[in-house]
Amino acid sequence: MATVSTTHEEITLAAAGGIPAVNLRELIDANLYMPFPFQSNPHASEAATGVDEWLSTWGLTDEPAVAAMISYTRPAELAAYNSPTMDSGLLQIMANQIAYQFVFDDRAEDVGRQRPGLLLPMLCESVGILRNGQPPDTPLGAALADLHRQVQERCTPAQAARWAWNSREYVHGLLYEAVAQTDSVPLGSGLCRSIRSLIAGVEPFHPLCEAAQPYELAPEELRHPVMRRLGRLSADAAVWIADLFSAVKEQRAGGVINLALAYQRAHQCSLPVAVTLAIRRINSTISEFEELYGEIRPELSPAGVGYVEGMAGWIRGCYFWSRTVPRYAATTAASAVP
């Protein structure tokens, strides 16, 4: 990708119609390329009720702070926007997993800020459950074991194995994030993106997108280089879009693994300018996804098409969810003026 060359504080931060953006959300809306229209699953409210019951069953919302976090994060809403045509049973698994990852990720971040080594028991328990079916020792582990069971019951063995593999990569990535958070040396943008790709938490959902299809994809289709590239582009675009809306929240909390904040550190610019630079990279990523999908679509089976549509759903869903979710409300209050 070509390097952006400009005087950053002179970038035009304009909204549609030439009217200057007042806040960061307007700035994002005006400049982000989003070719995928809004959709929502009709089972969204049912999934939200199911998430609350599932989290309560495993004691994850016994802490008031966790219960509050779930209420302003709305995991079932994100699942519904990502997967508008998914059946109610599979949507419930996806919504449960999104909720679990938010709880797990927030706790890992809190623990990792103290000292990365403190994360090891938590992460090793998760890896043991996912790799060996090890019995859980904690409520978080018990919830993960139950989630693993749900996936195994609904997915084919190969899909469940891919889910576990992708989930383990996500778990390992949280240790990288903890090291980066506690290191006094400023993190470069390239390394930040590498860690972000590990902790994006999107690729574990790709096997669920596959499970939503009428039959399992053939290995040669699933492992096609273009298909693998589409998976990477989908995950990056989805999580980077969330980074735009979470930048204010992360900046206040001292977070470093965020695309917009990485641009801000690299170019010593204001947050609105950094967000604009990040949007340019995201737009390029989405355009590449569209182009590659258009090229390979005639070669894909109907299940392959549905699988890629599921990937595209994550790009669309993360955008429409991030715009209004209370978790990122600070974006609307933040000025777009450098």
Automatic annotation (TrEMBL):
Highest taxon in the source lineage: Bacteria
InterPro entries reported in the protein's UniProt record: Amorph_synthase, Isoprenoid_synthase_dom_sf
Pfam families the UniProt entry points to: Terpene_syn_C_2
Protein's name in the database: Sesquiterpene cyclase
